[in-house]
Amino acid sequence: MSSHDVLGRTEGGDLRLVGLTKRYGSFTAVDDLSLTIPQGSFFALLGASGCGKTTTLRMISGLEDPTIGQIHLGDQEVTDLKPYRRPVNTVFQNYALFPHLDIYENVAFGLRRRGVKDVKTAVVDMLNLVELGHLAKRKPTQLSGGQQQRIALARALINQPQVLLLDEPLGALDLKLRRQMQIELKRIQTEVGLTFVHVTHDQEEAMTMADTIAVMNHGRIEQLGSPAELYENPATTFVANFLGQSNLIQAAVEGETDGVVTVSAHGQQLKLDAKRCRSTSGKIILGVRPEKVQIATDRADVPAGFNALTGGKVVDTSFIGVSTQYLVQMPSGEELSVFEQNTGRTIQRPGTEVVVYWDPSQGFGLEGTQDIEAGADADEEAAA
Amino acid sequence: MTTLTEAPAPVEERAPERKPRRNFTPWALLLPGLLWLTVFFLVPILTSVSASVQTGNYDDGFKLTWHFANYKDALTKFGPQYYHSLVYSLLTTVFCLALAYPVAYFIAFKGGRWKTLLMALVIVPSFTSFLIRTIAWKTILADNGSVVHALNDLHLLKITTALGWTVGNHVLASPAAVVCGMVYNFLPFTILPLYTSLEKIDPRLHEAGADLYCGPFQTWRRVTLPLSMPGVIGGTLLTFIPAVGDYINAQLLGNPNTTVVGQRIEDLFLRQSDGYPVGSAMSVVMMVGTLVIVMTYIWRAGTEDLL
Amino acid sequence: MATQTISAPAPADGSAPLKVRRKSPLAWAKQHVLLAVTFVVFVFMLLPNAVILWMSFNQPDGKFNYTWNKFSLDAWKNPCSNSTMCHSIGLSLEIGVVATIIATILGTMISFAMVRHRFKARSGINALLFLPMAAPEVVMGATLAALFFNTIGPGAMGFWTITIAHVMFCISYVVVTVKSRLAGMDPTLERAAEDLYATPTQTFMKVTLPLVAPGIGAAALLAFAISIDDYIITVFTAGNSETFPMYIFGSVQRAYPAQIDVIGSLMLLGTMTVIAVSQILNQMRTSRKK
């Protein structure tokens, strides 16, 4: 055993990754990743399958050796420490509960391996924290998916690691249970105050739980920030498409005055907040979230100062209760999505000529040289 | 309230419940095979119990005389043979397990896309008659062969001879050769069940072990070994049981001082006109002895919570 | 905002340039211990087969082909120069085929009864099926010999007594193999066939049998392999007949010709060829379907 105290904790536990790279032959899974995760935060690595998020997690846990780079936990460098010497524990994707041990022994496993003699109080407390105290004598196979998930969490948490790693922890659960567990995980994290690093392909899961999200793509961090920052002000088309949906429109900058950028798209003039633009010259991509866009049948209904695109035609209308989703085709053939809240307005039938409009402060501008479709179907791929 | 709980007496007779039709199909399917096993396996085994207390010879016939002295003969006259059978089969089981575990572990967890090929290589040798393969060890371990030369050069042969494992300057015709042949013959029977149970273990459990403060040895001890116990038990039984009865290796690779029970039973049955009762008694002793050892083993392995 | 301290791509803080990490030689050796042990054990397991092939090209000096003398193709040119040996091979093959057919039919019937029907006395039947696999061969052989001595006498023993014995110990192996295949089969397939107007006979012939056939085939192969290789039980039930294993065993006392090694090599090469060809045919069939 290493020189930590019984619970394996040392002081000052920021997790720092420095220039972390992992190559498998000629394939680079993680590419020069540098990151600091402060102690006590709930951090999510979000990305499609194969983006390197799981490899990053496995390098933090020690199950994978980095090709280049260092991992620091507080003042301690842990890069060369074997997984069983790191104050880091993992909640595995398929839970990896030991089938030959009962729930009690599964939870007690880590403490016993570190020579803790009296584990009873800790195990009972931990089982109560995940509200499964009554199942202590069962075998893992006798538990439901959600219960196994909570045991896996308890088994890792009982060791009071400096960092808890969660590898797609809710992937195997059905939607309803997933929602419930998201709230529960967040509650437990707040209660125990440990650093949680969470890997997922589910953007909703990441946004619900994490304080900070790193969106990963091709082994690199595409953008880092709070869920709101990422959603409201994506830095790339990949983030714009991967986190929720975006209407992305090719546009050309015409000029900038008083912090307002004027662009032309679909032969019409549109305005953008310069602070929300990653580029303010030449060709850019103008983005706006579907729920910020509204439609009207008459140009006169558009409030003054709003961006408006005319000449569109509704090609599809889906009424889904809380909202109505429209697909509006522009004369160029490009399609825009509009999510309209169900506030009692008339639902437009397909075929209706409409004007789409939005508040200029809600749009964002991206570099014009990127692939406009990047990340658009990555979410489905990952979910499949 | 009582009126509600009291159910009204049934007015109408319910339709008579249909009796399930007796199904003879399973018995028709089972009968020929079970009859075969009964007549040619169970009955002979049971008659041999009675034969073990008879006297007589092949020319005059045998009579049931409750001659329990046959057992005294069977137990006292063949002490070395029981000892050899037991020691060789136990050594074989231990060596087989020690060699098979790393091999099965390697194939199951590190085999990758070579898994099927490696498992095929375990089975392939048995396409050749096991007798020819056992006799091939006569060539490998021959006095002028490289194995004996190497052992001589390393001065190991003197040590093994002093220990009684080999005889003089030979490896052949010695206890060591017999055990080597037995290990060779039974190794696949240990590897197969071990591989099957190791292969079922999710490798992510190893990672979970490492994550929860187990070094490589602790991971094996606390996770892999308990989960592979069915394979360990199956493999050792599949090795030990036939090894107890085996006398081919002792006959082909041993010497007159390495004889085992099987050789004596064959001798008594096939080459001595009055050996049938004592031979039967030896068979019974061997069967009961094996059964006791196997049962004790299973019982111990079962109650020790699989280590 | 609580997350201000989080910094994306860390600035170069003047620390030493990061080097590609390499494993120490000790760690490498540790990792390959398992590989080395496996390799040695495989050599141990495959060595006799190599020796057999090697010795089949030997011209023995004397009666016993145990030590290398000089290269010769004689044994390969006349594998049957010794007619006793080839007769014994013929007898072994005959017994193997007959015993396999009977054991496979009886064993398959038992498997169907055990998997598809409910009846009492299951555990007793299971024990009866398990015991022949667990009992020492020498005991089965000896007691069976006694039965035949006492009923038909030693003179009448031969082909049929050997076959009877082989069927006896093959049945259990057939049951184990076919049962696992049957148990792994989805019973709703049979219900589906019935739903689609198949009579019980048609269901069995068109659905059940084709699905279980690979299991029955594997069981038959196993039974044949066990029968043709058996020595101990055979020697007790053979009377004056001599099977190939008995011939080999006897040769150790009389004379051990290189022809035995030729047969041993042929057994290995023949089976491997059959497997390779069936694999290739299988692959061709699946690729054509695509």
Automatic annotation (TrEMBL), chain A:
<feature type="domain" description="ABC transporter">
    <location>
        <begin position="15"/>
        <end position="243"/>
    </location>
</feature>
<keyword id="KW-1278">Translocase</keyword>
<dbReference type="InterPro" id="IPR008995">
    <property type="entry name" value="Mo/tungstate-bd_C_term_dom"/>
</dbReference>
<protein>
    <recommendedName>
        <fullName>Spermidine/putrescine import ATP-binding protein PotA</fullName>
        <ecNumber>7.6.2.11</ecNumber>
    </recommendedName>
</protein>
<keyword id="KW-0547">Nucleotide-binding</keyword>
<dbReference type="Pfam" id="PF00005">
    <property type="entry name" value="ABC_tran"/>
</dbReference>
<dbReference type="GO" id="GO:0043190">
    <property type="term" value="C:ATP-binding cassette (ABC) transporter complex"/>
</dbReference>
<dbReference type="InterPro" id="IPR003439">
    <property type="entry name" value="ABC_transporter-like_ATP-bd"/>
</dbReference>
<dbReference type="InterPro" id="IPR013611">
    <property type="entry name" value="Transp-assoc_OB_typ2"/>
</dbReference>
<comment type="similarity">
    <text>Belongs to the ABC transporter superfamily. Spermidine/putrescine importer (TC 3.A.1.11.1) family.</text>
</comment>
<dbReference type="InterPro" id="IPR050093">
    <property type="entry name" value="ABC_SmlMolc_Importer"/>
</dbReference>
<dbReference type="InterPro" id="IPR017871">
    <property type="entry name" value="ABC_transporter-like_CS"/>
</dbReference>
<keyword id="KW-0472">Membrane</keyword>
<dbReference type="InterPro" id="IPR005893">
    <property type="entry name" value="PotA-like"/>
</dbReference>
<dbReference type="GO" id="GO:0005524">
    <property type="term" value="F:ATP binding"/>
</dbReference>
TrEMBL record, chain B:
<feature type="transmembrane region" description="Helical">
    <location>
        <begin position="116"/>
        <end position="136"/>
    </location>
</feature>
<dbReference type="GO" id="GO:0055085">
    <property type="term" value="P:transmembrane transport"/>
</dbReference>
<feature type="domain" description="ABC transmembrane type-1">
    <location>
        <begin position="82"/>
        <end position="297"/>
    </location>
</feature>
<dbReference type="InterPro" id="IPR000515">
    <property type="entry name" value="MetI-like"/>
</dbReference>
<feature type="transmembrane region" description="Helical">
    <location>
        <begin position="278"/>
        <end position="299"/>
    </location>
</feature>
<keyword id="KW-0812">Transmembrane</keyword>
<feature type="transmembrane region" description="Helical">
    <location>
        <begin position="24"/>
        <end position="46"/>
    </location>
</feature>
<dbReference type="GO" id="GO:0005886">
    <property type="term" value="C:plasma membrane"/>
</dbReference>
<protein>
    <submittedName>
        <fullName>Spermidine/putrescine transport system permease protein</fullName>
    </submittedName>
</protein>
<keyword id="KW-0472">Membrane</keyword>
<feature type="transmembrane region" description="Helical">
    <location>
        <begin position="86"/>
        <end position="109"/>
    </location>
</feature>
<feature type="transmembrane region" description="Helical">
    <location>
        <begin position="172"/>
        <end position="195"/>
    </location>
</feature>
<keyword id="KW-1133">Transmembrane helix</keyword>
<comment type="similarity">
    <text>Belongs to the binding-protein-dependent transport system permease family. CysTW subfamily.</text>
</comment>
<keyword id="KW-0813">Transport</keyword>
UniProtKB/TrEMBL annotation, chain C:
<keyword id="KW-0813">Transport</keyword>
<feature type="transmembrane region" description="Helical">
    <location>
        <begin position="33"/>
        <end position="57"/>
    </location>
</feature>
<protein>
    <submittedName>
        <fullName>Spermidine/putrescine transport system permease protein</fullName>
    </submittedName>
</protein>
<feature type="transmembrane region" description="Helical">
    <location>
        <begin position="155"/>
        <end position="176"/>
    </location>
</feature>
<keyword id="KW-1003">Cell membrane</keyword>
<dbReference type="GO" id="GO:0005886">
    <property type="term" value="C:plasma membrane"/>
</dbReference>
<dbReference type="Pfam" id="PF00528">
    <property type="entry name" value="BPD_transp_1"/>
</dbReference>
<feature type="transmembrane region" description="Helical">
    <location>
        <begin position="95"/>
        <end position="115"/>
    </location>
</feature>
<dbReference type="GO" id="GO:0055085">
    <property type="term" value="P:transmembrane transport"/>
</dbReference>
<keyword id="KW-0812">Transmembrane</keyword>
<dbReference type="InterPro" id="IPR035906">
    <property type="entry name" value="MetI-like_sf"/>
</dbReference>
<feature type="transmembrane region" description="Helical">
    <location>
        <begin position="207"/>
        <end position="228"/>
    </location>
</feature>
<dbReference type="InterPro" id="IPR000515">
    <property type="entry name" value="MetI-like"/>
</dbReference>
<feature type="domain" description="ABC transmembrane type-1">
    <location>
        <begin position="89"/>
        <end position="281"/>
    </location>
</feature>
<comment type="similarity">
    <text>Belongs to the binding-protein-dependent transport system permease family. CysTW subfamily.</text>
</comment>
